[in-house]
Design brief:
Blueprint: H1 3-15, E1 19-24, H2 29-40, H3 54-58, E2 69-76, H4 87-90, E3 94-95, H5 104-122, E4 128-131, H6 139-145, E5 150-151, E6 157-158, E7 166-173, H7 193-197, E8 203-204, E9 208-209, H8 215-221, E10 237-239, H9 243-246, H10 252-257, H11 268-272, H12 276-283, H13 292-307, H14 313-322, H15 326-336, H16 342-354, H17 358-368
Parallel strand pairs: 3-10
Antiparallel strand pairs: 1-2, 2-7, 4-7, 5-6, 8-9
Helix pairs in contact: 1-5, 13-15, 14-15, 14-16, 15-17, 16-17
The chain binds cobalamin.
Length: 372
């Protein structure tokens, strides 16, 4: 490795990155068929931005023809260790560990920009373009090619010492850096825990994820109604999902050493009561704002329905009666329909008399009929 590469890796580690490497940019020809099939099958679902510039995603030099190589970086986050409480009794939701604290798009990008600035200081005039999930870049592909880890069966990038609880960032540059001599070996072996234990069956052999079944997609990216058949399967996940990482043996040690974190399980009724201002104040700097208030409260209503706890009926009834957002009312109606209880039925019948949105009325009717 040349001296500049070594120096930049040292700077990246000083900044707090745990892994850094380099590789040469090239067209990802071996992924072209896979990706066009993936798009044609509608797997991008509501993430229409994934389909926008497929050629650039497959060949970053189309972003800027001067680009020659990439420095890839991994930034760690605290693995999930929720308190061992019965979420149904406590009516607590579950959020993915990556979403705790400040939004990584901002914090990690700031650190990567510092590394890019160091590169530019060493080689004045060098072109640098920094991404942290902020452009048409197949981030895991470049990280794997740069030797940071292997493409796991759960489709996350995995490293033997760091598992997968890290974010990826890239500095694309016109400088030439060498790729590692040998690829990082695949260590999934015959393990299929992520495939077997995904509650919605979103993962299949062949590094294949079906976002339309993935809880992470449904709770973060999906807009509009959550398909009825999927709602019971979300359990209490209200933003993202960590199951395919939690069950991965390469994450065991890190998880066991992590502190218990109450914030992974926010009280559902409290979330359901957030108005626009409350949502903005609470999540202004968090990745959770991506779901918007409408998505997060929709998810909280579904989780309260899944809790089976009769104490959830009162907050759901209040939402059905007073919530201005029809999508949230519709999911509150569905959730009330999960309870075989007189007060849930009364709330539904009362709401039906004043409800004007057809999609909410339909949910109310199905809920009163206690349709599956
Ligand atoms: C879209 C997206 C999602 C979507 C789709 C996920 C997916 N697997 O594609 C949804 C919303 C579901 C999602 C969920 C999550 N995501 Co996400 N996501 C992205 C994003 C923006 C693009 C990914 C992408 O290009 N998908 C397109 C499809 C085609 O990818 P794919 O289905 O995995 O297909 C690839 C493989 O199948 C591979 N392939 C095909 N054939 C073969 C053959 C062989 C031999 C091999 C090795 C590979 C291979 O090629 C395809 C292209 O790489 C990236 C950031 C980025 N710009 O790269 C973050 C990113 C992948 N996500 C990230 C994270 C943290 C998550 C979650 C863990 C968040 C959470 N806790 O809820 C989950 C994990 C779910 C999972 N198992 O993937 C991190 C992953 C970090 C890591 N260590 O890998 C990234 C890199 C963001 C970041 N900057 O850190 N995500």
């Amino acid at each position: 490795m040349d001296r500049l590469a070594e120096k930049l890796i040292a700077i990246a580690l000083e900044q707090g990155f745990i892994l850094a490497g380099f590789t040469t940019l090239r067209p990802l020809e071996e992924r072209a068929d896979f990706f066009s099939r993936w798009l044609a099958e509608g797997r991008a679902a509501g993430m229409e931005w994934l389909a926008k510039t497929p050629a650039k995603r497959l060949d970053p030099r189309l972003i800027d023809p001067r680009l020659r190589s990439v420095m890839t970086l991994a930034w760690p986050y605290i693995p999930p260790r929720p308190p061992a409480i019965d979420w149904r009794a406590a009516m607590r939701g579950r959020i993915a560990a990556y979403a705790l604290g400040l939004d990584y798009h901002d914090t990690v990008k700031a650190r990567a920009l510092t590394v890019a600035a160091a590169l530019a200081a060493e080689r004045p005039g060098a072109v640098t373009r920094v991404y942290v999930d902020t452009g048409p870049v197949f981030e895991r592909e470049w990280a794997a090619a740069a030797g940071l880890g292997w493409f796991g069966r759960n489709t996350n990038l995995l490293n033997r010492y760091h598992g997968s609880y890290f974010f990826l960032a890239e500095i694309l540059t016109d400088l030439g850096f060498d790729a590692p001599k040998a690829p990082y070996r695949d260590h999934c072996g015959t393990c299929r825990r992520c495939l077997d234990l995904c509650p919605t069956g979103a993962l299949a052999d062949g590094y294949l994820l079906e976002p339309r079944l993935c809880i992470s997609y449904l709770t973060i990216e999906h807009r509009g109604a959550i398909p009825r058949a999927m709602r019971p399967r979300l359990g209490n996940w209200i933003f993202g999902c960590d199951i395919c990482q939690e069950v991965c043996p390469w994450n065991n040690d890190a998880t066991a050493a992590a502190p218990i974190n109450e914030a992974l399980m926010p009280p559902l009724a409290e979330l359901l009561a957030l108005d626009d201002d409350g949502f903005r104040r609470r999540f202004a700097k968090s990745a959770i704002r991506r779901a918007k208030r409408s998505g997060l409260l929709r998810n909280a209503a579904v989780a309260l329905g899944n809790s089976g706890n009769p104490a959830a009926i009162a907050p759901l009834a209040a939402t059905l009666a007073n919530e201005p957002d029809a999508q949230i009312r519709a999911h509150a109606a569905w959730a009330l329909g999960r309870f075989d209880a007189a007060d849930a039925r009364r709330a539904l019948e009362q709401a039906r008399r004043g409800e004007s949105a057809p999609e909410v009325n339909q949910e109310i009717t199905l809920a009163i009929e206690r349709a599956p």
